[in-house]
Amino acid sequence: MPEITRDEVAHLANLARIDLDDAELDHLAPQLSVILESVASINGVAGDDVHPTSHALPLTNVFRDDVVTPGLTAEQALAMAPAVDQQRFSVPRILGDEQ
Looking at residue 46, what DSSP letter applies? Predict the structure, then answer.
């Protein structure tokens, strides 16, 4: 049975920059051990004849061919814009000069 100790939880919390007090460490260690036991039990379910899969059903992606089609001209794209400046959409400034 995999078991995670209180010291291991403290080490992981330190690596993750999570501040845990003693009560939290005492509370989390057994909970994480249960999670590890659950994950370990899954390893025993699949036999050697079961191949790893990413999906339960065999799926094939269906993609259309990437065909270049004519797009809008700059004039067409900007035709309904409320404001245009040098062939660009003009929008109100939201940031000041400070950066």
Answer: S
- Nearest C-alpha neighbor of 10 from the set 36, 19, 30: 19
What number of other Cβ atoms are within 10 A of residue 52's Cβ? 5
* Dihedral over Cα of 26, 31, 33, 34: its sign: positive
- Residue 24 identity (one-letter amino acid): E
In this prediction the pTM is 0.44
- Mean pLDDT of the region 50-71: 83
Contact between 2 and 32 under an 8 Å Cβ cutoff? The reply is no
Nearest C-alpha neighbor of 32 from the set 62, 76, 1: 1
Confidence of residue 73 (pLDDT cuts 50, 70, 90): very high
What's the token pair of residue 68?
A: 């270049």
Summary mean pLDDT of the chain: 87
